[in-house]
Amino acid sequence: MSEIEARIRVHVGDITRLAVDAIVNAANTSLLGGGGVDGAIHRAAGPELLAECQSLNGCKVGDAKLTKGYRLPARYVIHTVGPVWQGGGKGEAELLASCYRRSLELAAGKDCRTVAFPAISTGVYRYPKDQATQIAVGTVSAFVSHNAVPETVIFCCFDQQTADLYQQALLRNGGSA
Ligand code: ADP
């Protein structure tokens, strides 16, 4: 296993349960909460999270903003806004890659050693899972290979099927290493 591969893990479970330095939220541009992983994070973090989010003036698609984790076991939440899938011709791939990069930059700025990502845009935003997984793995691998922090990145998948996609993408990505 290469050094880069050793720094990227796949986990099956609920991201709100992870005691890591930062978890990433697949938020919407309002940052005021929503369904899916966003709703789960706000429920677990408590009302103080919404109060901090209300002071942030929203977030652009492809960008990210950081808050405290409040009642979560994670110290920080990095809220990023993935693109809504519109067929692939509206810059979705670049915007999704930007979500991963910006989140990692914010995590590095707070010296986070371990960061966990959900599968951004693959729920209500309908991004095809195989393509989203390729972008997630490619972007995170590139970042990790150029930066010492975060040391470890976890892809937190809600189900085993998604985790299998990540494992396959990681194997392909590191296949020549
Ligand atoms: P988006 O609006 O960016 O598509 P969603 O929250 O609808 O965001 O879905 C993103 C992904 O997060 C989906 O693959 C969904 O299965 C997953 N997900 C939902 N809840 C959780 C959770 N508590 N922990 C980890 N992943 C979750």
UniProtKB/TrEMBL annotation:
<dbReference type="InterPro" id="IPR002589">
    <property type="entry name" value="Macro_dom"/>
</dbReference>
<dbReference type="GO" id="GO:0061463">
    <property type="term" value="F:O-acetyl-ADP-ribose deacetylase activity"/>
</dbReference>
<feature type="domain" description="Macro">
    <location>
        <begin position="1"/>
        <end position="174"/>
    </location>
</feature>
<dbReference type="InterPro" id="IPR043472">
    <property type="entry name" value="Macro_dom-like"/>
</dbReference>
<dbReference type="Pfam" id="PF01661">
    <property type="entry name" value="Macro"/>
</dbReference>
<protein>
    <submittedName>
        <fullName>O-acetyl-ADP-ribose deacetylase (Regulator of RNase III), contains Macro domain</fullName>
    </submittedName>
</protein>
